[in-house]
């Protein structure tokens, strides 16, 4: 074999690694992290991704998983067992809420939801068997900003772990572990990979023993990511900082434009001074507010359809955080599994559109919105 020194990590698209003899096998078990055995247990591409995300989030280590959902599952199963109780912020991604209420309850993990108004005083929600609370840095889809330091003080007082879904903010804006959270998860599918071509997740931990549990759950449940997806995500991650600056700058310009438009009834974006947690968002996000915003047009499906059909380059795509702008419809997609009462309570109506601002020239985005709003 010639002496090859690649500048970037090659793709180790292999399910298994070989050993010369029993001595090498013993080295694998005796010196963890020095060699590889089986891709479900570890692979150079997924390890590279885990290490890079861990650096950004300032953890003791990270575990990469097959999706954001499996990252949430791994984080919860690392800490909880049957008979335990989990708290969850009421304003949360619909899939997270479905995982808790429809699946984890089936294996004996109880769930309680905390209304936004009560987030920082958990006395009436914590039970003797409560182990953790799950919340998002910025809620999906209405961009309520969580005061992580304050919640971490409360979860620590209650002796429960705080798990933060940092997908919407990314570590460029906010590093929850440095603010007192115990575990951070991401849907790597979104900003971290950034190009709408990967489905992946990651769990980053503050304590070594939690990290070891997450690693074990990932391996034993088979929640691992494939090498190629790990490679793609690690490649995308290299431009995260640049992308977040452009997403944030575009997000602010689009939000300001929408805010003054007569056909737009409401805009939710933490960068707007009118946003209830604007000051907190500014300080917790290093002056950046990200690319996600939501806005409300006329509460009629026909108006929403006309608006969507009049956008020539901005697609309706039920995901977010890619380099190309897209819109989504929370009521019809991410929050579809909630009851009509829950949807109503959260304010997710038919006219609410979620806007994932890409990194295009902002003038192009605004011109396209202007034309589409004209037909509403
Ligand atoms: C905030 C948030 N967390 C977690 C997830 C789940 O991630 P994935 O689709 O990668 O499983 C999503 C997906 O939209 C999300 O928006």
Automatic annotation (TrEMBL):
Listed cofactors: pyridoxal 5'-phosphate
Any one GO CC term of the record: cytoplasm
Keyword rRNA processing: no
GO BP field: transsulfuration
Pfam families: Cys_Met_Meta_PP
Cleaved signal peptide residues: none
Key words, A-Z: Pyridoxal phosphate
Residues the record lists as N6-(pyridoxal phosphate)lysine modifications: 190
Domain of life (superkingdom): Bacteria
Gene Ontology MF, one: carbon-sulfur lyase activity
PANTHER family hit by this protein: TRANS-SULFURATION ENZYME FAMILY MEMBER
Recorded family membership: Belongs to the trans-sulfuration enzymes family.
Name of the molecule in the record: Cystathionine gamma-synthase
């Amino acid at each position: 074999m010639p002496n090859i020194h690649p500048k970037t990590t090659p793709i180790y698209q292999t399910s298994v690694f070989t050993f010369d003899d029993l001595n090498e096998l013993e080295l694998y078990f005796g010196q963890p992290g020095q060699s590889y055995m089986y891709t479900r247990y570890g692979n150079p591409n997924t390890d590279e991704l885990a290490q890079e995300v861990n650096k950004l989030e300032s953890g003791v280590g990270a575990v990469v998983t097959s999706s954001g959902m499996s990252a949430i599952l791994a984080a919860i199963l690392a800490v909880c067992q049957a008979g335990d109780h989990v708290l969850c912020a009421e304003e949360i991604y619909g899939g997270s809420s479905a995982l808790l209420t429809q699946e984890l309850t089936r294996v004996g993990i109880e769930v309680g939801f905390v209304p936004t108004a009560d987030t920082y005083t958990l006395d009436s929600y914590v039970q003797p068997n409560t182990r953790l609370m799950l919340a998002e840095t910025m809620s999906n889809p209405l961009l309520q900003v969580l005061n992580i330091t304050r919640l971490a003080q409360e979860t620590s007082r209650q002796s429960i772990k705080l798990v933060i879904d940092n997908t919407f903010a990314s570590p460029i804006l906010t590093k929850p572990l440095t603010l007192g959270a115990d575990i951070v998860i991401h849907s790597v599918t979104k900003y971290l990979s950034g190009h709408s071509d990967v489905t992946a997740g990651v769990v980053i931990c503050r304590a070594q023993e939690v990290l070891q549990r997450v690693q074990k759950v990932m391996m034993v449940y088979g929640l691992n990511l494939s090498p190629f997806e790990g490679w793609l995500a690690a490649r995308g991650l290299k431009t995260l900082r640049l992308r977040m600056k452009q997403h944030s700058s575009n997000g602010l310009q689009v939000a300001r434009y929408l805010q003054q438009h007569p056909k737009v009834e409401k805009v939710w974006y933490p960068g707007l001074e009118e946003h209830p947690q604007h000051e907190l968002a500014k300080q917790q996000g290093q002056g950046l507010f990200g690319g996600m915003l939501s806005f409300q047009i006329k509460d009629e499906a026909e108006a929403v359809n006309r608006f969507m059909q009049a956008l020539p380059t901005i697609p309706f795509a039920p995901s977010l955080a890619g380099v190309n702008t897209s819109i989504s419809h929370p009521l019809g997609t991410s929050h579809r599994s909630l009851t009509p009462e829950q949807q109503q309570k959260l304010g997710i109506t038919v006219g609410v559109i979620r806007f994932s601002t890409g990194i295009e020239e902002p003038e192009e985005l605004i011109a396209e919105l202007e034309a589409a709003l004209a037909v509403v």
